[in-house]
Recover the amino acids of this structure.
C-alpha cells in the first residue's frame, strides 16, 4: 500500500435518498446510529492499511467535510506521509463542476500526480460492505493487469442496476456492459449468475492518467468510468476481475448500495436485529467514526405502563428512553423518547425529541426534529402525506421543516419559551 493512493468519490447528489440528502451529501447521511455512510469505506481503507486517501466532494458537503476533518484526520500520521484529505472541485483544469466519475478524478490529476503513486484505487463513499483492498492489490500485481475491478455475483434480473462484466476462466475481463436492460453474460463459475462491477477499480497510474486525459478531450464522452473508461480500455490493456472476498464473515456476501430510501432503511433495520447480517461488533474489522462526548444512554421509569425499555434496538450515547418503549429501531446520539411513547421499526437521527404518547413506526426522523405530544406517524399514509414525505413503499420521512405548525397537539410548543 505504500505505492498506492486511494481516491474516494463522495460527490454524488443522492437524489434517490431525498429528502435525507436535501441538506447533506449522500455519504454524510447517518448510518447505524453513530456512523456516517462514508465511515464504512474509510474503515475499510484503514483496516486495509491504505493510508493515503483523497476524498472528492461536491454537493452540500459542509457536514461531510467537517466530519472527515474532525473524525478522520487524527487517524493517520501526517508526519509519515499519510493523509485523508478532502478535495472539493477546484476548477484547476476545467470551469465545470464534476460531470462524471472519470471527470472528477481527471480534475484532480495534478494532485494525484504529485503523490507519484504506482497504483490508484478508485472507491465509492456510499456503499455498505467490508473488504480488504490489500488482497485485491496483491492479485492485481501478481496477475500483471493494468486494471482490476472488483466483482460480485448477482441475479440476471438485477443487471440494469450494475455494470456487468464477462470474465474468462483465467480471470481476465473480456466484455463489459454498463447497466444493460438484459445480458447474455454469465459467470464462468456460477452459470446462473452474472458478475457485476462493485465500482471498485485498481489502475496502474501510468495507464489511468493518459486515459483520463484522452477521455477529457472527447466531447461525446459522459466522462464516466463505467460508460467510457473501462469500455475504452477493454482489449487495449490487460483487465482482470477480482472476486469479492467479504470480511463480514457471513455465509452470504454482504454488499449494499443504500442509494434509495428503502435500501437505506432496510440496512439500518438489519443492524438492529438480534443476529445482524452486517456485523458491527467484529473486533477484527472495526468500524471507526468521529467521536462525540455525550453521556451514557439511560432508561428510566419502571412502573406499569410507563417503563423505559428498548428491545432489539441500537441506542447510542446521550439518549434517554424515559418511560417509553422502543422496538426494532435505531436511536442516534442525543435522542429523547418521553413517557408513554411507542417507537417501532424506525430510524431516529440525532437531537430528536419525541413527545409523550407519540406513536411512531416504519419511519425515519431527521435530526433536530421535535415531535409534539400525541403525534402519530406511520400508521396512516394518507394523513402522513399532509405533513411529511412518504415514499412509494409507504416509508414516512420527517424532516426539520415539516408542517408542525398545522398540528393542533401540544399548543405550548407554539408559544415563546415552549419546549423545543
Amino acid at each position: 500500500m505504500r505505492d498506492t493512493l486511494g481516491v474516494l468519490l463522495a460527490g454524488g447528489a443522492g437524489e434517490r435518498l431525498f429528502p435525507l440528502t436535501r441538506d447533506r451529501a449522500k455519504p454524510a447521511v447517518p448510518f447505524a446510529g453513530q456512523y456516517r455512510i462514508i465511515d464504512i469505506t474509510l474503515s475499510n481503507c484503514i483496516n486495509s492499511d491504505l493510508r493515503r486517501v483523497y476524498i472528492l466532494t461536491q454537493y452540500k458537503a459542509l457536514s461531510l467535510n467537517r466530519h472527515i476533518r474532525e473524525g478522520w484526520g487524527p487517524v493517520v500520521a501526517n508526519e509519515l506521509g499519510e493523509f485523508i484529505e478532502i478535495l472539493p472541485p477546484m476548477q484547476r483544469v476545467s470551469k465545470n463542476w464534476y460531470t462524471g466519475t472519470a471527470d472528477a478524478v481527471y480534475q484532480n490529476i495534478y494532485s494525484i500526480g504529485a503523490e507519484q503513486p504506482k497504483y490508484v484505487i478508485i472507491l465509492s463513499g456510499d456503499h455498505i460492505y467490508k473488504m480488504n483492498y490489500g488482497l485485491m492489490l496483491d492479485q492485481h500485481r501478481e496477475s500483471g493487469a493494468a486494471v482490476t475491478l472488483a466483482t460480485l455475483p448477482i441475479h440476471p434480473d438485477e443487471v440494469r442496476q450494475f455494470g456487468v462484466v464477462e470474465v474468462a476462466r483465467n480471470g481476465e475481463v473480456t466484455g463489459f456492459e454498463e447497466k444493460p436492460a438484459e445480458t447474455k453474460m454469465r459467470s464462468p463459475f456460477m452459470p446462473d449468475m452474472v458478475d457485476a462491477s462493485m465500482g471498485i477499480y485498481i489502475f496502474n497510474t501510468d495507464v489511468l492518467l493518459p486515459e483520463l486525459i484522452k477521455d477529457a478531450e472527447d466531447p461525446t464522452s459522459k466522462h464516466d468510468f463505467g460508460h467510457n473508461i473501462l469500455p475504452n480500455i477493454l482489449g487495449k490493456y490487460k483487465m482482470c476481475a477480482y472476486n469479492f472476498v467479504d470480511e463480514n464473515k457471513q455465509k452470504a456476501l454482504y454488499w449494499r448500495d443504500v442509494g434509495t430510501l428503502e435500501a437505506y432503511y432496510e440496512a439500518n433495520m438489519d443492524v438492529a436485529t438480534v443476529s445482524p447480517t452486517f456485523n458491527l461488533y467484529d473486533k477484527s474489522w472495526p468500524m471507526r467514526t468521529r467521536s462525540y462526548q455525550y453521556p451514557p444512554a439511560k432508561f428510566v421509569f419502571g412502573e406499569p405502563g410507563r417503563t423505559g425499555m428498548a428491545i432489539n434496538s441500537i441506542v447510542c450515547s446521550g439518549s434517554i428512553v424515559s418511560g417509553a418503549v422502543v422496538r426494532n429501531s435505531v436511536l442516534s446520539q442525543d435522542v429523547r423518547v418521553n413517557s408513554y411513547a411507542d417507537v417501532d421499526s424506525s430510524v431516529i437521527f440525532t437531537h430528536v425529541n419525541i413527545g409523550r404518547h407519540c406513536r411512531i413506526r416504519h419511519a425515519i426522523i431527521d435530526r433536530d426534529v421535535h415531535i409534539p405530544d400525541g403525534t402519530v406517524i406511520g400508521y396512516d399514509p394518507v394523513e402522513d402525506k399532509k405533513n411529511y414525505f412518504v415514499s412509494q413503499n409507504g416509508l414516512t420521512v420527517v424532516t426539520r421543516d415539516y408542517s408542525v405548525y398545522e398540528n393542533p397537539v401540544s399548543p405550548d410548543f407554539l408559544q415563546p419559551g415552549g419546549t423545543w
Remarks:
- The first helix runs from residue 37 to 47.
